[in-house]
């Protein structure tokens, strides 16, 4: 995770187009400028960054399901719950499942676990738009390669 760059997902662990699910690792770093202010002497991962991690996992799910033809943009969350605090150096697993999609939108259910126990969950809504330019689409694909997204599965998606 590179918090100051909002790179919340460390790698894609699995993508199942048939089940419409994706699992990703999100390894919270031991140190980050984010922790200096949240909170001094008791560093915690901000809840908004947990939401961002769920949104990014959901985004990769949507990208995988649409074959990287359109970009998901976060537009809202519902039923968001932070169930526990997350400290530095914590390995997290982020799960996302598509629960609705249509012309220009998608909705996912996502949750984060630590050692098998849920620490956060949300229903997340996205606007799904055609990539604004090929350079942006190329940058997203390169990001996916760094995250070990299984692009070979897109052929069967």
Q: Concise description?
A:
With 157 residues, the protein is an alpha+beta fold. It is built from 3 helices and 6 strands. The protein has a 6-stranded antiparallel β-sheet, covered by helices on one side.
Features of this protein?
157 residues; alpha+beta; Thiol Ester Dehydrase, Chain A; six-stranded antiparallel sheet; 6 strands; 39% strand
Helical content stands at: 10-25%
**General form:** globular
Return the domain count: 1
Strand order of the largest sheet: 1-2-4-5-6-3
From the 3D coordinates, which CATH architecture would you assign? Answer: Roll
Looking at the structure, the CATH topology is: Thiol Ester Dehydrase, Chain A
Number of helical segments? 3
- Helix/strand class: alpha+beta
Strand content: 35-45%
Give me the strand/helix succession: EEHHEEEEH
> What is the CA-atom radius of gyration, in angstroms?
15 Å
Q: Please, could you describe this protein's structure?
A:
The chain is of the alpha+beta class. The chain has one domain: Hotdog Thioesterase (Thiol Ester Dehydrase, Chain A), CATH 3.10.129.10. The chain is 24% helix and 39% strand. The protein has three helices and six strands; from the N terminus they run E-E-H-H-E-E-E-E-H. The protein has a six-stranded antiparallel beta sheet with strand order 1-2-4-5-6-3, with helices on one face. Strand 4 and strand 5 form a beta hairpin. The two termini are 27 Å apart. The mean pLDDT is 94.
